[in-house]
Amino acid sequence: MTRDPGIPEHQTPGNPSRPGGDQRRGNPVSRRTPGVPKNGASRPRSPRPPLPTDRELVTPNRAEPRPNQGARYEFQPPQHRIPRSAQPDRKRQTTVPLSHQQPERAEQPIPKDQSYWLKWFYNWKLWLIATLVLFGGSGMVAAMLLFQIPGLPNCPAIFWPLASASLRFECARLAASKQTAKDLLEAIALVDSLPPDHPMREEANRLVEEWSQDVLRLAEEDFNAGKLGDAIASARRIPSKVTAYKLIEERIKRWQSIWSEAEEIYKKSEELLRKQDFRQAFSNAVRLLDVENEYWRTTKFEELSNRITVTRNDGNKLGRAYRLADAGGLNNVLQAIKLVESIRPESYLYQAAQQAIPKFGRQMLEMAQAALDRRNLREALDILDKIPEKAYLKDEVRDYTILVNAQSQVWQNTVPAVEEAISQAQRIGTKSPLYRKAQQLITRWQLEIEAIAQLEKARLIAQSGSVDDLNAGIAEANLIGRANPRWDEAQQQIRRWRAQIETIQDRPILEQADQLASGGDLPSLQAAIAQAKQVGRGRALSREALNKIQKWTAEIQRIQDEPILLQAREYANAGDLRGATSLAQQIRSGRSLYNEAQADVRRWQDRIQEETVKAQAIATMQEARQLANSGSPNNLATAIQVADRVPAASSLRGEAASAINEWSQQLLQVAKTQASYDLPGAIAIAQKIPSRAPVYAEAQQLIESWKRTLGL
User: Fold this and answer.
1) What is the mean pLDDT of residues 27-39?
2) Cα–Cα distance between 153 and 401 in angstroms, integer?
3) CA torsion angle 630 632 638 641 (round to 10)
4) Which of 211, 254, 447, 569 is the most buried (most CB within 10 A)?
């Protein structure tokens, strides 16, 4: 079908590429000639229907047109022909593209004989817009072509055997610009593959030298960063023909030597830490600061220092734990276990801490056994229940609990109870660490069953308490052999029965001795002592008999010594202290009144000493006063010295001090008098005044004054 040149392409009926021209799209354009039915009757292809008038053009869809879609026009013939004059005035409702909108103006009907395309051809705005679009688009395209940056080559996708040298150099420089060992080595490989006679070989050699130096520098940085393996691997990939290759092996050996030295220092410090020699470990760690590697000087040294600090703290914990455990007591051992459990796995002392826990656990087992020996079942079970799992004694604790309960059964001292204990002990398996102990207890308890039965029989025989029955019970109990575990118990029972027999035999002897001593006189007491001595040493009542003998002996000694002490006191009251002392000292040590007599003797001796001192002080003062009475300076000074010999404890010491002060005042007065004609003599007299005298300070001032007068 040919398109009408007077109608735009997008308005051509039946055009499937434009909106409104295909019945499959929405809002199809309906162009019908008036009088043609709307129910789908086909239109004739020719002649072309006349253009609708402006009053026949309506816009049923007011939505915005889509891109590249012109306005939609629907031609709909009026239902009835109404004269134009009779039709109501209304504006033409159209929706046209934005570029085609024009100011409203008077609507003019389009002449039927004018072609539609001529209307657009004479539209100057259309031509203006088209011109601007054409020239603007051309300028933009030209600018894009002018400033477009050439694209970089896709180096990873290049097939290198067929690549050009320039492309190799370009990709090599791109790789080298990343400044990593891997990329630099790839860059070297790219340019170094050129043949020796290639025109760009000299430039390649220069770049290989330059990049090899960069690789070696980066390898050195890796070495100082702690990446020894990467540094060695990078260095050994440098081509052998470069100048830097001669330094590679030497550099690698130097790296390895430095690294080995640092590792040896680090390991040595670790060994010292495990031995808990923290001071030496730190002294050794300081050597890392002299290592020619930044990684070991900083990172590893700081790491080792932190480990030393942590290990020192852990060592303090471990030492405190052992001290607590050595102190004994359940709470101390539990606290010790808690301390060692706080040591973390990364610690150098973690293994030592873990080894300490089983030791503490076994110590708790011993404590449980001690509680069991005291027959405290509850305490023993409580201790076993608190043994930690990390002690790795779970099976042993379980078996030990069985044995504890079994031993508690034995305490009942009956044959059925011991048989029950044996039954429980037989539950301990052969692989248990306590199997041997369980078997020993079973053997012991089997022997005890025999002893328990034998002792029960002996107790029944001795039940009446008569001497004959007690002796018969002793004979029965003696049948228990020394090898039997219950032998000690049997011997204790035998000793009790023998004590009963001895008591029955010796009680009448002591009762008779008491009757004799009731007289209270010397003969009665002596007879009572003789009677009590009939109780032999080591018998049941020997202690009681000895106590009675000591009591009666003391009474005899008091009767004998009391007259002596009374007479001595009479001498003392009469003033004969020395006679009283001599008489009281006749009471010898060990007798009942000895301590009392010695107290009196000490008191009398003190009084004798006081009287002696007082008499000496009186004689001394008499001598001093006789000297002072002469009034001469020398005698006064001598009198002062004699009076000063009176002891400080003497009652005459106050009198002596007063006399010394008086005689010192007299000396000062004599010195002042003599100073008027004999200054040296006055000074000599004043110097005899003692320092304790009140006038001593005044005398010293006068002496200084007189010396200045003499020019001394």
Assistant:
1) 37
2) 82
3) 100
4) 211
CA 540 vs CA 501, 505, 522: distances in Å: 9, 10, 28
Sign of CA dihedral 582, 586, 589, 592: negative
Rounded to 5 degrees, φ, ψ at 360 are -65, -35
Provide the pLDDT confidence category of residue 164 given band limits of 50, 70 and 90: low
Q: Do residues 257 and 292 touch, judged by C-beta distance below 8 A?
A: no
Closest Cα to residue 341, out of 327, 332, 352?
A: 352
> Whole-angstrom Cα distance, residue 189 to residue 210?
13
Yes or no: say if 415 and 378 are a contact pair by the CB < 8 Å rule: no
Determine how many CB atoms are found less than 10 A away from the CB of residue 481: 13
Residue 651 CA, chain-centre distance (Å), reads 72
pLDDT of residue 163: 64
Tokens standing for residue 592 = 């009942």
Q: How would you class 150 by CB atoms within 10 Å of its CB: exposed for 0-12, middle for 13-18, buried for 19 or more?
A: exposed
CA distances from 6 to 100, 118, 271, 323 (A): 18, 8, 105, 116
Q: Inform me whether the pLDDT recorded for 305 exceeds 50.
A: yes
Structure tokens at 379: 């305490």
Radius of gyration of the chain (CA): 67
Instruction: Determine the angle formed by the axes of helices 577-584 and 542-573, rounding to 10 degrees.
Output: 170
Which position has the token pair 């471990």?
318
Structure confidence by residue, pLDDT tens digits, 609-619: 888 778 888 88
Q: What is the DSSP letter of 24?
A: T
Residue 552 pLDDT level (bands cut at 50, 70, 90): very high
- Report strand pairing: 74-75 vs 57-58: antiparallel
The residue with greater pLDDT, 298 or 236, is: 298
pLDDT grade for 13, boundaries at 50, 70 and 90 = very low
Arithmetic mean of pLDDT, 473-479: 91
3 state SS of 291: coil
Query: What is the amino acid identity at position 169?
Result: F
Who contacts 140 (Cβ-Cβ below 8 Å, separation ≥6)? Answer: none
Instruction: Judge whether residue 289 has pLDDT over 60.
Output: yes
pTM beyond 0.70: no
- DSSP annotation of 74 reads E
Band (115; pLDDT cuts 50, 70, 90): low
The SS3 assignment for 637 reads helix
pLDDT value at position 599? 92
Q: Whole-angstrom Cα distance, residue 497 to residue 490? A: 11
Using CA atoms, how far apart are residues 313 and 307, in angstroms rounded to an integer?
10
Half-sphere exposure of 428 (CA within 13 A, CB side): 27
CB 669 within 8 A of CB 701: no
If you write DSSP's letter for every residue of 301-346 in order, what string do you get? HHHHHHHHHHHHHHHHHHHHHHHHHHH-SHHHHHHHHHHHHTS-TT
Q: For residues 533 and 523, give the distance between their C-alpha atoms in angstroms, rounded to a whole number.
A: 16
- What six digits make up the tokens of 520? 């209270």
Tally the C-alpha atoms within 13 A of residue 9's C-alpha that lie toward its C-beta.
5
Phi, psi of 74, rounded to the nearest 5 degrees: -125, 120
Checking if the pLDDT of 77 tops 60, the result is no
- Residue 58 phi, psi (nearest 5): -130, 160
- For 324-374, write each residue's pLDDT tens digit: 998 888 899 999 999 888 888 888 888 888 889 889 998 998 898 888 888
Q: Is 298 left (phi over 0), alpha (psi -120 to 50) or beta?
A: alpha
